[in-house]
C-alpha cells in the first residue's frame, strides 16, 4: 500500500515537474521526490500547483470493453463470458484538464467514463481472492472513442484504432490510494457534457469485478507494475443515447466524475 493518500504530478510556478500529495483544493502539494511511482521519497517541501499533469506515464494500458450490464444491453450485444480486452498506446495519455485534440478523420466522437486501476507490482497467475492486494490506487479516465472506426467494415469489429489517437486518454487528477477505496464495486460514475448529465452509473453494475479482471488478465501473462487498467463504462454513451446520435463537437466540455476518486474535465478541440 502507498504511504500517500492521493498522488498528483504537477508543474510548479517555475515550470518544474513534481509528484506530490495535494491539498483538498489542489492549490498546493507536498512534494514527493522521485522519477517514477516506485522511487518516491517524502519531503517537507510544499509547492504551489500551476498545472496538473497526468498522474504518471503508464507503459501498459489495458482496457476492458462491454463490462457493464446496462452498456452491453444498450449496445444490443450479448453479455460476454470473458472480459473483452483491447489496448491503448502510451501517447493516448492526456492531462486531467487538458484539451483533447480531435483529428480530422474522427467524426463520431464519444465519451466513456471509466474507473482506472494502477497496479502496484507485477501480477501473474493471480487468484481472484488476492487480486486487490496488487492495486496501488485508482483514478478517473475517459476512453475517448471515434465510433466510425469501430464499425465492422472499417476495423473488423476491433476497438483499438478508434481509441488510439494521441490524447484520447485524459486521466487523473490524482491516484487515490487503494486503502481509501475499500470497495471498488460501490462507486458512482457521472458524466456531464456541457453540464448536462449523460451517464449516471455505478461500478456495482460491472459484469466482471476489478478483482476478476486482474485475475483473468494475469493468467499466463504478467501485468507489469505501473500498468493502467481501464475497467469499462456504464450506459449513456452518445452512440446509443439518441437516434441519430449526437456526437461530441468542437468546444464541447466533458466532465467524468467517480465518487471518492475525483473528476476530470476536458474540452474537445477539432483540427
Automatic annotation (TrEMBL):
Keyword Metal-binding recorded: yes
Superkingdom to which the source organism belongs: Eukaryota
SUPFAM superfamilies assigned to the protein according to its UniProt record, in alphabetical order: FAH
Keywords in alphabetical order: Metal-binding
GO BP terms: oxaloacetate metabolic process
Domain named Fumarylacetoacetase-like C-terminal: residues: 61-268
Keyword check for Metal-binding: yes
GO MF terms, alphabetically ordered: metal ion binding; oxaloacetate tautomerase activity
PANTHER family referenced in this protein's UniProt entry, alphabetically: ACYLPYRUVASE, FUMARYLACETOACETATE HYDROLASE FAMILY PROTEIN (AFU_ORTHOLOGUE AFUA_1G02370)-RELATED
Protein name stated in the entry: Fumarylacetoacetase-like protein
Source organism: Eremomyces bilateralis CBS 781.70
Amino acid at each position: 500500500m502507498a504511504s500517500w493518500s492521493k498522488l498528483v504530478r504537477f508543474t510548479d510556478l517555475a515550470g518544474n515537474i513534481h509528484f506530490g500529495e495535494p491539498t483538498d483544493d489542489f492549490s498546493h502539494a507536498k512534494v514527493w521526490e522521485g522519477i517514477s511511482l516506485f522511487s518516491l521519497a517524502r519531503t517537507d517541501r510544499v509547492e504551489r500547483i500551476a498545472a496538473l499533469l497526468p498522474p504518471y506515464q503508464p507503459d501498459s494500458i489495458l482496457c476492458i470493453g462491454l463490462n457493464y450490464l446496462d452498456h452491453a444491453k444498450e449496445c444490443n450485444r450479448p453479455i460476454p463470458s470473458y472480459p473483452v480486452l483491447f489496448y491503448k498506446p502510451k501517447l493516448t495519455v492526456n492531462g486531467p484538464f487538458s484539451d483533447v485534440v480531435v483529428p480530422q478523420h474522427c467524426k463520431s466522437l464519444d465519451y466513456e467514463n471509466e474507473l482506472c486501476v494502477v497496479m502496484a507490482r507485477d501480477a501473474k497467475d493471480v487468484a481472484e481472492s488476492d487480486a486487490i492486494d496488487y492495486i496501488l490506487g485508482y483514478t478517473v479516465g475517459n476512453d475517448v472513442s471515434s465510433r466510425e472506426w469501430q464499425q465492422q467494415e472499417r476495423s473488423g469489429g476491433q476497438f483499438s484504432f478508434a481509441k488510439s489517437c494521441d490524447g484520447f486518454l485524459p486521466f487523473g487528477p490524482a491516484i487515490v490510494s487503494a486503502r481509501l477505496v475499500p470497495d471498488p464495486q460501490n462507486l458512482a460514475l457521472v458524466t456531464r457534457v456541457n453540464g448536462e448529465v449523460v451517464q449516471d452509473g455505478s461500478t456495482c453494475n460491472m459484469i466482471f469485478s476489478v478483482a476478476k479482471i486482474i485475475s483473468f488478465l494475469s493468467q499466463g501473462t504478467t501485468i507489469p507494475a505501473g500498468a493502467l487498467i481501464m475497467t469499462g463504462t456504464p450506459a449513456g454513451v452518445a452512440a446509443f443515447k439518441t437516434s441519430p446520435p449526437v456526437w461530441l463537437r468542437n468546444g464541447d466540455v466533458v466532465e467524468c466524475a467517480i465518487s471518492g476518486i475525483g473528476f476530470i474535465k476536458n474540452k474537445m478541440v477539432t483540427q
